[in-house]
Amino acid sequence: MDNNHYCVIMAGGNGSRLWPASTTACPKQFMDIAETGKTSIRNTYDRFSSIVPKDNILVVTVRKYRDLVLRDIPELKEENLLLEPYARDTAPCIAYAAYTLFKRNPQATMVVTPADHLIDDDEKFREAIVRSIEFVSENNVLMTLGITPTRPDPNFGYIQITGGSAALQKAGAIKVKTFTEKPDVSLAKVFIASGEFFWNSGIFVWTAETIIREMEKHLPEVTRVFSGWEHAVGTPMEEEFISRAYTDCVKISIDYGVMEKTDKAWLYPADFGWSDVGTWESLYGCIGEKDMNGNIFNTAKILTEDSHDVVVYSSTYDKLVAVKGLENYVVIDTGKALLICPKDDKKLKEFTARLSMPGFENYR
Amino acid sequence: MDNNHYCVIMAGGNGSRLWPASTTACPKQFMDIAETGKTSIRNTYDRFSSIVPKDNILVVTVRKYRDLVLRDIPELKEENLLLEPYARDTAPCIAYAAYTLFKRNPQATMVVTPADHLIDDDEKFREAIVRSIEFVSENNVLMTLGITPTRPDPNFGYIQITGGSAALQKAGAIKVKTFTEKPDVSLAKVFIASGEFFWNSGIFVWTAETIIREMEKHLPEVTRVFSGWEHAVGTPMEEEFISRAYTDCVKISIDYGVMEKTDKAWLYPADFGWSDVGTWESLYGCIGEKDMNGNIFNTAKILTEDSHDVVVYSSTYDKLVAVKGLENYVVIDTGKALLICPKDDKKLKEFTARLSMPGFENYR
Question: What residue stretches are annotated with the Nucleotidyl transferase domain (chains A, B) (predicted)?
Answer without folding.
Answer: 8-284
